[in-house]
Amino acid sequence: MNQAAYNDASLFHAPQPEAHDDHAHAYPPTPPSICKLGTIIFLCSEAMLFGGLISAYLVLRQAAGCWPPDFGDGIHLPPMPKLLTGINTVILVSSSFAYHFAEVAVKKGKSGAGWILTAALMGATFVGIQCIEWTELYHEGLWFNKGGIYGSTFFALTGFHGAHVCIGVLLILWCFYLQVTKRFFTPQRHVALENVGLYWHFVDVVWVFLYVILYLV
Amino acid sequence: MSASVTADSHAAPAHHGDDHGHGKPGIMHWIWNTDHKVIAMQFLVSAVFFLLIGGAMAVAMRWQLGFPGHPIPVLGHLLPSGIVNDEGAIMPSGYNVLVTMHGTILVFFVAMPLLIGVFGNFLIPLKIGAGDMAFPALNELSYWLFALSGVIMMSSFWVPGGAPGTGWTGYAPLSSVAAYNQTPMGQTLWCVALFVNGLSSLTGAVNYITTVITMRAPGMTMFRMPLPVWAIFLTAILLILAIPVLSAAAALIIFDLNLGTSFYKPQGGGQPLLWQHLFWFFGHPEVYILILPAMGLTSEILSVNSRKPVFGYKAMVWAMIAIGFLGFIVWGHHMYVSGMNLTLSAAFSVSTMVIAVPSAIKTFNWMGTIWRGSIHYTVPMAFAVSFVSMFVIGGLSGIFMASTPVDLFVHHTYFIVAHFHYVLFGGSMFAIFAAIYFWFPKMTGRMFDNTLGWIHFWMTFVFFNLTFFPMHNLGLGGMMRRIADPTVYDCLRQLQPLNVVCTIGAIGLGLATIPFVVNLVMSLRKAPDAPANPWNSTTLEWTLSHPIQHGNFPVTPTVYHGPYEYSVPGLQKDFLPQNEKAPAHVTLEAH
Fold first, then answer.
1. For position A76, what pLDDT does the model report?
2. Would you state the pLDDT for residue B395?
3. Which among A199, A113, A195, A128 is positioned nearest to A162, based on CA atoms?
4. Domain count, chain A
5. Is 60 exceeded by the pLDDT of residue A3?
6. What is the residue-wise DSSP string for B533-568?
7. How would residue A16 be classed by pLDDT, with cut points 50, 70 and 90?
């Protein structure tokens, strides 16, 4: 028993308490690995949120026959701007790389604030171009309540995603602020930076899917 | 807390905010507190409050069905004017509101918080030997999001148009077109409340999964975890995967109602059936979200009160995993009459019937657990045994409806109402009552009153069956769900005496909550009198005596064996706590 009990062949080993954790009444900060696990579980639920929306879109599009749908009212719905959004996609994906370089820099003991700011600015640029695109589509006659499900699904999916990007930009700016003013993230302590990074990469991956199904095919 | 710990510099940050140490806790102690045990009590009080409201709605509905058009004796004038007329009798539109809000409240504001919010919070850290949840502040946020969603949901009664009357399933296009439902504001608030409630569930689930994976005490391997922990862990995974789909679907209803989108409107290329797919993709796992924790809690209570190990512990775990997985591929069995492809119906029919296999494994293992046990007839044991019996009735009628040809006839009749009340009330609520009585000494440090407990049990058991068993006959006799007055249909008039029987049962069931609430309140008023381990139980929470400090275990316990070592041959006591080593001459069957 005893020591062997610790090493039972189970999928997840019970963690060994660290020496300073022994008295349960104290509140050491939650260890980084646990914070990361929590973030990943949260992102699984985010994936299901987008999974639900994307399947709704695919079901409606499948049923519509042709895309953009033809409601027989003689109105030609505008095609999606593939090129502009393609460039936008490259910007958003690049911001993930910029953010990754920031994390690498922080782990090496450097500030990384430049890379953090670059990622935030690229994210903000993405939102800006997306706004321009929304405005153009509005002038071409496509909106939440115009163009039937063609407009509804497009604006709902890009809207949900855009909201996530905006939150991500704010989180990255918050990291930037902490790093510039307090040099908050160090090689030893950067779990918040990593968690924001996980969220940011997730938002980028979701966009790649959205770009493919909303614009390309 | 020992002096050496106090002297330790690491202990210093502990004394902030919610932890006032030795004085009497102030009001803030109950408002913002990151202690998982206090959060469990917050959920308990809120959920019992909602249980009384939702239960009163059910009694009002039953009154209308038993005695259509007659003013409700006591409740009549307490209900909002949109629901009852001047004489205090329920109007048809008001009946729809009651159906909707009763279902929504009981599922999202009673059963889920009681099973997951109360027992998930209270039991997970104590049973796995952890000091608290992985993210204590997130845990408290989860409670307040729940409370906020409750306020939003109830506020829909007072907005123009009143609360929605579209059923707890909120089928589109009834729910998504203002001209159809006449309650666009109420319906929007309903969706917003479910969205916020979903956030609460998600923050809770993130906490539970992370805590179970990372914070188990040394020696507490996954297959040494007590079954309630396993059950709530799996439930949390279901929550993570199912709730976001409901949130997405509800958001689309809000857009359709308020922004003029056309997700569920055929005129714009949308599909009403899309809502049903999204809703039931969430809705069927939700059924298992409501029953898995109940199964876990019951397994433990049966084992303790039979003084025997849980029969087939690992089979119990794998059966729950199987039920959780299968729960995601059966949602179409709610939609046989919605115009779904028949081949698809057959597939959903088969996958649904397969769920009977793990469910039967669990049922036989419960019987195996109490078989030849030294059964202790306690109030929690009575509720737990009733859980098994009622769950079998509800489960078997479920197999009827899994079969498409049978479902075509019984769908949308009272047979369905009988079925899901046998699993949700006879199943989940009986397990909740069992668990409340079982862990009451640990949660409050006080023993409940046995006589009142038995009165509560017998009233609940008898009146539950009196209310819901005749509904099988009503359904097979052709009575439709969600009708405000069965007597306007010629074909249903001969069934009216049965409706009166159901109503009498429902009134009795309502009265049965009186001894329950009186018992809770009276027991809380007396001084702590419960021994640390009144049931001679083996799991870690019973090693702590009242009051359990913030942080739970003074010394992190070490676990040496599985959770249910009762009546081990060769031991003097008939139970072996998880943190006690077995003597050298004793061999344990489980690892």
1. 86
2. 94
3. A128
4. 1
5. no
6. -TT---SGGGGSPSSPPTTS-SS-----S-S--BS-
7. very low
Task: For residue A38, give how far its alpha carbon lies from the nearest alpha carbon of chain B (Å).
Answer: 6
CATH number, position B275: 1.20.210.10
Total domains present in chain B:
1
Is residue A27 very low, low, confident or very high in pLDDT (cuts 50, 70, 90)?
Answer: low
ipTM over 0.85: yes
List CB contacts (< 8 A) between A27 and chain B.
13-14, 551
Question: What is the pLDDT averaged over residues A208-216?
Answer: 96
pLDDT for B590: 61
Ranges of chain B whose pLDDT falls below 50 = 1-22
Contact (Cβ atoms closer than 8 angstroms) between residue A55 and residue B257: no
The pLDDT assigned to B583 comes to: 87
pLDDT at A66 over 50: yes
Q: CB B262 to CB A149 under 8 A?
A: yes
Name the minimum distance, in Å, from the CA of A117 to any CA of chain B. Answer: 28
Could you list the residue range(s) of the whole structural domain that residue A204 is in?
31-216
Q: Which residue of A has its CA nearest to B21?
A: A25
Torsions phi, psi for B84 (to 5 deg) = -110, 155
CB contact at 8 A, B320 and B230: yes
Contact at CB, A152 and B270, closer than 8 angstroms: yes
State how far the Cα of B466 lies from the Cα of B426, in Å rounded to an integer.
Answer: 12
Which member of A8, A30, A71 has the closest CB to residue B134? A30
Contact B426, B464 (CB under 8 A): yes
Secondary structure (H, E, C), B99-150: HHHHHHHHHHHHHHHHHHHHHHHHHHHHHHCCCCCCCHHHHHHHHHHHHHHH
Contacts of A44 in chain B (CB under 8 A): 240-241
Angle, helix A32-64 to helix B272-306, in steps of 10 degrees: 140
pLDDT of residue B272: 93
Asked if A52's CB is within 8 angstroms of B555's CB, the reply is no
The predicted structure's pLDDT at residue B24: 65
| Residue-number span of the structural domain to which B206 is assigned | 34-543
CATH number of the domain enclosing A174: 1.20.120.80
User: Contact, B201 vs B112, CB < 8 A?
Assistant: yes
Number of cross-chain residue pairs from A and B with Cβ atoms under 8 Å apart: 189
Set of chain B residues whose Cβ sits within 8 Å of the Cβ of A13: 221
Per-residue confidence band for A1, with pLDDT thresholds at 50, 70 and 90 = very low
| Shortest Cα–Cα distance, B308 to chain A (Å) | 22
Identify which of B399, B404, B421 has the alpha carbon closest to the alpha carbon of residue B481. B421
In A, which residues are within 8 Å of B245 by CB distance?
48-49, 51-52
Contacts of A53 in chain B (CB under 8 A): 248
